[in-house]
Amino acid sequence: MSTATVTSKKVKISPLDDRIIVLPDEAEEKTAGGIVLPDSARQKPQRGKVITTGPGKLLDSGERGEMSVRKGDWVYYGKYSGTEVKVNGETYVIIRESDVLAIVDED
Questions:
Q1: CB-based burial of residue 45 (10 Å sphere; 0-12 exposed, 13-18 middle, 19+ buried)?
Q2: Nearest Cα to 10, choosing from 94, 89, 72, 92?
Q3: Which residues are CB-neighbours of 103 under 8 A, at least 6 positions away?
Q4: Other C-beta atoms within 10 Å of 52: how many?
Q5: How far apart are CA 36 and CA 46, in angstroms?
Q6: What is the CATH number of domain 19-104?
Q7: What string of DSSP letters covers the chain?
């Protein structure tokens, strides 16, 4: 009798056009006053780290527009922007570049 070994594949995702894959920041677990929030009361994060970007929007000229954000940037995005996806047990948000409200510059 032979045994088979199941190995899990690592799935890679690549955004298309002007889309960005963001790893959301952790939701706040406590209020400023120290009250612990249950999962149902936590607000959805609006800040995250850019994991990767697409090649840019395809323009009418056939050229690709340059992306304003880069891998590693911390960004703020709209509260209800994008689509959440789970890849390899990690939750990411896929958003359009136009949904980015600001790039965080931490000096």
A1: middle
A2: 89
A3: 68, 69, 73, 74, 75
A4: 16
A5: 20
A6: 2.30.33.40
A7: -------PPPP-----TTEEEEEEPPPPSB-TT-PBPPGGGPPPP-EEEEEEE-S-PBPTTSPBPPPS--TT-EEEE-TT-SEEEEETTEEEEEEEGGGEEEEE---
Q: Angle at CA 46, nearest 5°, toward 28 and 80?
A: 120
Size (the chain), residues = 107
Residue recorded with tokens 């690549």 = 14
Q: What is the pLDDT along the chain (107 residues), one digit of tens a residue?
A: 444 544 456 778 888 889 999 999 875 555 556 666 565 555 566 889 999 999 999 889 989 989 999 999 999 998 888 889 888 888 899 999 999 999 988 76
Q: Which two tokens stand for residue 33?
A: 């006053």
How far is 54 from 70, CA to CA, in rounded Å?
Answer: 10
Token output for 100: 């980015």
Global pTM value:
0.72
- Cα 33 → chain centroid: 29
